[in-house]
Amino acid sequence: MVHMARNMRVPPNSASLAEAKKRTLEFFRMCCRSIPEIMEIYNLYDVVSPSQLRSAVAAEVRKNSNVTDPNVIDMLLFKGMEELKNCVDHSKQRHHLVGKYVVGNQGLVQDLGHKDQGSSNFLRNFYSSNYF
Amino acid sequence: MGLGLLASRALRSSRIIRNSTRTIVSTPELKNADAAAAAAAADAPSDLPKRNPVGGARVHIPNPDDVIEVFVDGYPVKIPKGMTVLQACEVAGVDIPRFCYHSRLSIAGNCRMCLVEVEKSPKSVASCAMPALPDFVLSSNSGLVLLVLVENQLKYSHCISAEKAVYMHQTHDLQGPRMKIKTDTPIAKKAREGVMEFLLMNHPLDCPICDQGGECDLQDQSMAFGSDRGRFTEMKRSVVDKNLGPLVKTVMTRCIQCTRCVRFASEVAGVEDLGMLGRGSGEEIGTYVEKLMTSELSGNVIDICPVGALTSKPFAFKARNWELKGTESIDVTDAVGSNIRIDSRGPEVMRVVPRLNEGCPSFRADLKLDLTSTLPDINEEWISDKTRFFYDGLKRQRLNDPMIRGADGRFQAVSWRDALAIVAEVMHQIKPEEIIGVAGKLSDAESMMALKDLLNKMGSNNIFCEGNGMCPNADLRSGYIMNTSISGLEKADTFLLVGTQPRVEAAMVNARIRKTVKATNAKVGYVGPAADFNYDHEHLGTDPQTLVEIAKGSHPFSSALKNAKNPVIIVGAGVFDRDDKDAVFAAVDTIAKNNNVVRPDWNGLNVLLLNAAQAAALDLGLVPESDKCIDSAKFVYLMGADDVNLDKLPDDAFVVYQGHHGDRGVYRANVILPASAFTEKEGIYENTEGCAQITLPAVPTVGDARDDWKIVRALSEVAGVGLPYDSLGAIRSRIKTVAPNLLEVDERQPATFSTSLRPEVSQKVSATPFTPAVENFYMTDAITRASKIMAQCSALLKK
């Protein structure tokens, strides 16, 4: 598994949409197979479960579900492959993964907003910074 | 660089021919200047593109008879009589290089850098000192012959008989006798190159370690006009550095003896401290005896020094001028509102310099010229030492987090949410009439408006601005602004200063009065405690009884006022704090009435304010409901107010201090709300003459601080009395409904009604003498008190 991910390289362009689809599925499987190792090297057991990570990856893939151009899909696959390689090679640090796949795109600090309920935009901006 | 035009022309022409033999003079055509001049004359330019005056100046000629025409590089220019050749060139759009000439100082003519060629003149002339003449003066072999020709008609001759003059007229070819000035001929260029070589002979080559590097006139002009090598092989001379105090650093070896600083000190600052010693190569600038420069304007010699001989001591080796970002802003340390440029690097204010009307031509005020600059003429191009050097106070003692005083009396940092919640809660537990608000001396109009609206919404009307006294009269605007305007003071011929020492209260106004006294020998009468003046004055008395005598006409000075054409009375804002202020103002009004001080064409009745916030506070109606409101207050909102007297405040009162410095106000505060200083926010300030101006943010705020008006706005919402504005634009439209003059930025708004509408007062003046309003010129507010440089200056002042 590890050597497989290490030796990833750019494949030739997909000839058709069907081939691109197949490659996407293969890529998703490869991600799923690397998840246990990622859990291990970044020590993610106390913050996330493998199934949660799998759905995070699936969500990332589904984000581009409207893309139909095989060339674009190839490009996205390449970027995904790059990201996966960075994760597997330990090129990232723990907070990168926690920030991006565990907490999500909202960021690490989440304002749950129960305190500012009913306050105006002005006051919310005021609490966060002087420049708005 | 305005010299770019000439510089580029000089560079372009130098590339035309390259002789095989190399000479010291780098521009080969200069080797044979006369021949080149003849060649240049042969191909006279036929159609000339239009050129604009340097800096876009417009020339106002009040009397059409005074117009003369001269030719500058073949361009005809119409100028008023009395202009110098240099000024004529600037009107024609040609910037002449210069070192000693400065538009606001007298003419010295000793650097010779401004040499130009004038047709029919035997030698090149120093353009800064040479008047532009309507018709040119001829000199013949038989001595001086003056032929003054107007429109080709012989009008006047001198030194010779009329017949001889007519004969001369006929025998000489005098067609088109207009003065013809040539600024880019080989002769002029050679002259500049020669002057440059002489100047550089004894100038050290230490530009890499010189603070002037990058903004040095000598550096720029040697690149533009100098030769590429010198012929001087001996040792350069060196001069001992002088100690001019904690503000001005001297490296006198770099001095080129332009004498700008000497002229500034004696003409503008009014201290005869600097002078020229020695002759020839032994010539040096100095104080003769070991003496500091004791002027409140001494920092300006840094700006006028064309080289690095006089530089700023606090700024020494701190930054290079090309690293700095300039922000044009307003000074708030006094009520003058001097136009300044804040030079910053990243989050740090590196220095403060006066705003120059960039490229403004060198016209003197006496020449009736209108500078197109839209800026109000407030501080010419000088600023006081306090304005220039207080900036290090912006880095010390800053409040950066909201804080609450705990049970143990120590402050603890909290979040904005908690701080505002506590203030709002306490505010609601207190009766509305026991809530008071005090605006500080550095507050901008927006925050004062917001604070007044907040307190009014809470049901209190006890809000005032420190320095205005507890019962200010805000009904008549003419009763608290400088009605003559600062530049208008120059037209005055008699001054009566009442309880004000302009030298420490408003150094730039004092400089104007001094300029007027110097120019027109205006009389100055002064009523107040013994004070330091740098011009001739008459000390009339120390208490208001003197005013009553003048009003009655029994005082000797009243005849001087009576005979004056444009009398000016200036009342200091220190009078606002007196118990008999109404009587004092009534006496002043009587004096004004008796001496025709207020006329339709002239309003000479002025109040000189002390603080930047005062005028705007009165415009916005920051007047307390009761003058005893502090005695019974339970909740005090200090918005940057440090100098308000809180001795009578009950011990159980809750004090909120909103401000940027941990100064006097913080000692009594229960909650601290950190705000931004004037260098960090946009705000409207109205100066003492009633001119609203805007500060611009030069650096980011410190820590978790917020702009003043935003804090008040946020607090209002937490307290449940939300103010209806969310942006600077919205709060300004609110100001527009209260004081629309505050939005007329950079334009002085005169008062509409005169103070003669004031009701009669029965109060009698007391015999208490006037007291000085400013104890220490260098330390007047929270920022200047935090400044180390200002502390050094005040230590010297006490000595």
UniProtKB/TrEMBL annotation, chain A:
The lineage of its organism: Eukaryota, Viridiplantae, Streptophyta, Embryophyta, Tracheophyta. Belongs to the complex I LYR family. It is a peripheral membrane protein. One of its GO terms (biological process) is response to oxidative stress. It is found in: Mitochondrion inner membrane. Keywords: Electron transport, Membrane, Mitochondrion, Mitochondrion inner membrane, Respiratory chain, Transport. It comes from the Eukaryota. This is NADH dehydrogenase [ubiquinone] 1 alpha subcomplex subunit 6. One of its GO terms (cellular component) is mitochondrial inner membrane.
Automatic annotation (TrEMBL), chain B:
SMART domains: NADH-G_4Fe-4S_3 (SM00929). GO terms for biological process: ATP synthesis coupled electron transport. Residues 324-398 form the 4Fe-4S Mo/W bis-MGD-type domain. Residues 187-226 form the 4Fe-4S His(Cys)3-ligated-type domain. InterPro entries: 2Fe-2S_ferredoxin-like_sf (IPR036010), 2Fe-2S_ferredoxin-type (IPR001041), Mopterin_OxRdtase (IPR006656), Mopterin_OxRdtase_4Fe-4S_dom (IPR006963), NADH_UbQ_OxRdtase_75kDa_su_CS (IPR000283), NADH_UbQ_OxRdtase_ferredoxin (IPR054351), NADH_UbQ_OxRdtase_Gsu (IPR010228), NADH_UbQ_OxRdtase_Gsu_4Fe4S-bd (IPR019574). It catalyses: a ubiquinone + NADH + 5 H(+)(in) = a ubiquinol + NAD(+) + 4 H(+)(out). This is NADH:ubiquinone reductase (H(+)-translocating). The lineage of its organism: Eukaryota, Viridiplantae, Streptophyta, Embryophyta, Tracheophyta.
